[in-house]
Amino acid sequence: MKYAALLLLFAASLLGACAPLRPDQPTGAAVDQTTANSHAITAMNSERDIVLAVANPQDPPPTHAGSTMLGYVPTANYGAGQRAISELQAMRQHYGWHEVVGWPIKALNLYCIVLEPPPGMTRDELLAVLAKDDRVALAQPLQDYSVYSQAQNNAHEYNDPYANLQRGFVETDAALAHNVSQGDRVHIAIVDTGVDTSHPDLQGRIHDTSNEVDDNAPAFNRDPHGTEVAGIIGAVGDNHVGIVGIAPHSIISVYKACWYPANSPDGAHCNSFTLAKALAAILDTDARIINLSLGGPSDPLLDRLLKQLLGQQRIIVAAMPPDGSHAGFPDSAPGVLVVRVSNASSAPAGVLSAPGNDILTTQPGGGYDFTSGSSMAAAHVSGIVALLLSLSPNLDAHDVHDLLLHSSRMVGGAQQVDAAAAVSALGQSRAAPHH
Question: Which of 22, 149, 212, 380 allows an S-S link to 373, with CB 3.0 to 4.6 Å?
Fold first, then answer.
């Protein structure tokens, strides 16, 4: 009996070491971390808060002769290890910060928290001190990001759901490409706002969803931007309803990392915390394409996660900022496919051009309307990439980029990607003899 009691105590200590950190509680307290707390998200301030990370090794506990207990922490229970708990507890007491929320990133072996500097101390002052603390693996400002869509003129509200009104679908010759590929079995992760999963043209098309912002399901389904992006990529074809997606047979997962702040006219926003959670979650999936129709400043934590994803042969499609510059994340990372709205001017070196003006796509509540922005251009490219990967799953980001760039053609005075030409070029390259 005494030995059994010791085993139970040991098991309890293991589970405690795996528990995530709870905001506003002493570091190490256990909570359910299935979704981010919506109050914590709205309490974050990108002009004030800091993202801090410490090493979070998960060493197996020692086993003893005669013990039947497994010596490994299950992957599903990866959380805060004892080292991370102790170090964050000591630093919190020393610096006096207010912890907003915390979460583990298994792929990087880190435990991260979002914190508010103590009263009387600026963010820059605290960052300068933390840079000298050997316990800190990463300390950076909490960054703010936004989706790339343009406000529409209320005088031009269209809801005609005919495929021949889909400018992007028509101009990229997607219907012709569908004779060869419709993106079958290719998994696409959309990191964006929520999506109206009950929309007639999206119903049954969304394989799974993950909400890194809150638990508000009605708000998830009311979000416009993600719904627009998902419709361009994967709206149902041949259902006598609405429009057709560029890759209507692809597998779509939606990660809500962006939300619409109350009473804000500036559209949807995301931050380092919500984006990091989404990217970390994708690392545990088989998604080959990641659509990031958003952007903002460079971010060390997000750059680490992008590097991990690119190292796993994921193909990341990013929207170029509206002003044509490189914002930082995600468009400046080497290996990312950057997409702008096609126009008569020459694109920057290596940047792909795709339709992005007056694009008819799905809207929350079962509707359709026209929208514009490089977010929509990126969605077209993600769909075309799915057509290519369905035919040749081993293509890497470099191969896909070159194929799309070299098969682009002039449409209305603008050079832009062409789905049919890319599929044809891929077929020719596969048929060509290899020496």
Answer: 149
CB 374 within 8 A of CB 356: yes
Domain boundaries, the chain: 17-62+73-142, 146-431
393-420: average pLDDT? 94
Instruction: Give the integer Cα–Cα distance in Å for 186 and 42.
Output: 34
d(CA 220, CA 255): 10
Place of tokens 């004030």: 48
Please state the three-class secondary structure of 284-352 as a single string: CCCCCEEEECEEECCCHHHHHHHHHHHHCCCEEEEECCCCCCCCCECCCCCCCEEEEECCCCCCCCCCE
Q: Is the pTM of this model over 0.90?
A: no
Other Cβ atoms closer than 10 A to 406: 10
Residue keyed to tokens 């560029």 = 246
Q: Please name every residue paired with 252 in a beta bridge, in sequence order, or none if there are none.
A: 188, 206
Q: In what order do the strands lie in the sheet with 269-271?
A: 269-271, 144-147, 294-295
Query: What does DSSP say about strands 269-271 and 315-319: parallel, antiparallel, or unpaired?
Result: unpaired
Spatial contact of 114 and 51, defined as CB atoms under 8 Å apart: yes
Query: DSSP states of 124-158 as a string?
Result: HHHHHHHTT-TT-SEEEEPPEEEE--BPPPTT---
Q: Which CATH superfamily is domain 146-431 in?
A: Peptidase S8/S53 domain (3.40.50.200)
pLDDT of residue 329: 95
Please state, in angstroms and rounded to a whole number, the distance separating the CA atoms of residues 176 and 14.
Answer: 57
CA distance 361 to 353: 19
- Report the Cα 24 to chain-centroid distance in Å: 27
